[in-house]
Write a structure and sequence with these properties.
Blueprint: H1 2-13, E1 24-29, E2 39-40, E3 45-46, H2 48-68, E4 76-78, H3 87-97, H4 118-131, H5 138-144, H6 147-160, E5 166-171, H7 177-185, E6 187-189, E7 194-195, E8 202-208, E9 213-218, H8 226-239, E10 245-251, H9 258-273
Parallel strand pairs: 1-4, 1-10, 5-9, 5-10
Antiparallel strand pairs: 2-3, 6-8, 7-8, 8-9
Length: about 280
């Protein structure tokens, strides 16, 4: 695993990076609503039976979506922001598909056990402490990356800290954008949100629990009216190409994805027209 990370980092800085990622991840949120009474509140997780049903239904949705959009199933993940369920798989997807995605490596999602019963929370913390050994240390990296390359990497990373990764978050109203941002990135606002023009789009600066910073472009929701969609599309086209990643959130427990499919295809085109963020 460490060798793979080293190879990816070295190739990126040497200019031999593989194909530029599309910079788009689609998330199916609110899977906890799929199965009534299927959530174990004591453990803050679905029951075994409910988890199987959620997985089966979400995989079916993902398969159907991928047939109608210009992205693969690998760009789609399911989760519950409210219950902090499957945030790590989602965050992994984001890191893999973001432009220069390693910049997000220090992001740690909110702890799902914080919502569990106290004894469960205490047990989880004990087990976590037993396994808490950092393997991706600087000394480990030095063993697999030449010193000259390592210096270049560290210089680049130092420069990146002055320009935080930029993530656009978009979806219909009520899909849980705010909850997703709060729990997925587990960050605190560093500055007051900046409204873009007279729209509902906001630029939010976060400080992360593990250090570093993140810029989130919170875009207005689509699908409420054709007039609003036309107005907001101008904002989307202006802001999305400048982002390292676009995270589009869908509501998992719905049957109508027509607006979402249309938006995914539009965003895909905009990103393909601008394969590198317009910084």
């Amino acid at each position: 695993m460490l060798e793979d990370i080293g190879a990816k980092i070295s190739s990126f800085f040497s200019g031999k990076s593989p194909q530029t990622p599309l910079r788009l991840v689609v998330g199916l949120n609110q899977v906890d609503k799929m199965i009534p009474n299927g959530w174990d509140k004591r453990l803050n997780s679905p029951t075994d039976e409910a988890e199987k049903v959620i997985e089966r239904r979400c995989k079916d949705i993902i398969k159907k979506l991928s047939k109608n959009v210009a992205i693969s199933e690998e760009n789609i993940e399911y989760y519950s922001a409210l219950q902090r369920y499957r945030l790590i798989p989602l965050l992994t997807k984001i890191i893999q598909n973001a432009y220069a995605g390693f910049k997000l490596d220090n992001v740690k999602p909110a702890d799902p056990f914080e919502l569990a019963d106290q004894e469960v929370k205490a047990f989880a913390e004990q087990e976590r402490q037993k396994l808490d050994s950092k393997t991706r240390t600087l000394e480990d990296i030095k063993k697999i990356i030449p010193e000259t390359d390592l210096k270049l990497i560290l210089d680049k990373l130092q420069k990146e800290t002055k320009l935080p990764p930029k993530v656009a978050v978009i979806g219909k109203s009520g899909v849980g954008k705010t909850t997703t941002i709060n729990n997925l990135f587990n960050g605190q606002f560093k500055t007051s949100p900046t409204t873009v023009g007279t729209t509902e789009a906001q630029i939010k600066e976060f400080t992360l629990s593990t250090g570093g910073a993140l810029t989130v472009v919170d875009l207005p929701g689509y699908g409420r009216s054709e007039a609003e969609d036309r107005e907001y599309e101008k904002i989307y086209q202006d802001l999305i190409p400048s982002c390292d990643l676009v995270f589009l959130i869908l509501q998992a427990d719905t049957r109508d994805f027509s607006d979402d499919i249309e938006m995914i295809n539009k965003i895909t085109k905009w990103l393909k027209d601008h394969p590198i963020p317009k910084r």
